[in-house]
Amino acid sequence: MSAAITAAHAPVDAGPSRVSRTLALAGAELRLFLRNRTAVVNSVLLPLLLVAAVPALGIGEEVGPVGPQLVVTAIGVMLVFLTYYNLLTTFVARREEQILQRMRTGELTGLEVVLGIAAPTLLVTAGQIAVVALGVAVIGEWSAPVDVVLPVVALLCGAALMLMLAAASTAFTRTSESAQITALPLLVISSSLCGLFFPLSLMPEALATAARYLPLTPVVELSRLGLSGRTWDGDVVDLAGAWSAAPLPLAVLAGWLVVGAVLARRGFRWAPRR
């Protein structure tokens, strides 16, 4: 009798925690990522070449010193050309291989699957930006940021937004190859009108106003406010001025996060498209 009572009150093995399951999936995805030479080259080399084109072509001289502008450019370029595009192709490839569908039949929740698959790309994104920042310091172009909170918020929220938009874009992307076409609107329009390569202050007023509401623009605005103390129209500001100019891009970014979450929840597909 006592043995039966003891057995009834014995702790039940709940299995791996959510964090450990997500980390295990992230480790497997990282190994798969490193085995794909094309993905590694595209993720490491091409974004760095795009960033290197900024000082080589003299782009961005109107929006502040070269060092902070390089880091701002790295944040914008990595988020779009690395985080968004890589995650879109990865999600679609895993879906069409029925890997997502099989994962959903086990212990993993939907959020764990998405975060586990996205973790390697997010780590590479952060690593690339860190490499650019280190390079800026090595060549002597680093300057103390006006505020460190704004660029950190921009990077974290921007990465979350690109993850959501990549998940939402799987709704109209049939294959990983077709992602080259479906990703073009965000890759081309958003990156070209966000102020990275062409200052918004030099655009027609109507176009500049509309461009400030694109997904990547608030990320660039907040990063530039914090790193170089420059507003979207080129004014130089201090810490107080940076936060005075921050409410609009913060609100736009928050709005896009809500939109991205709704679109990802409704559009992300777990089963292959037929």
Number of separate helices: 13
- What is the N-to-C order of secondary-structure elements (H for helix, E for strand)? HHHHHHHHHHHHH
Question: Tell me about the biggest sheet?
Answer: none
> Any idea how many domains?
1
Radius of gyration based on Cα positions: 21 Å
Q: List low-pLDDT spans.
A: 1-13
Total strands: the figure is 0
Structural class: mainly alpha
Percent of residues in beta strands: under 5%
Query: Share of helix among residues?
Result: over 70%
Give the terminus-to-terminus CA distance: 58 Å
- Coarse shape: globular
Q: What is the residue-averaged pLDDT?
A: 83
Explained architecture:
With 274 residues, the protein is mainly α. It has 13 helices and no strands. The chain has one domain. The protein has helices spanning 2-8, 18-35, 37-57, 66-96, 99-104, 110-138, 149-169, 179-182, 184-192, 205-211, 217-228, 239-245, 247-267. The longest helix is centred in the first third of the chain and has 31 residues, at 66-96. The protein is globular and about 55 Å long.
Summarize the entry for a quick read.
The protein has one domain.
Task: For the structure shown, list the relevant keywords.
274 residues; mainly alpha
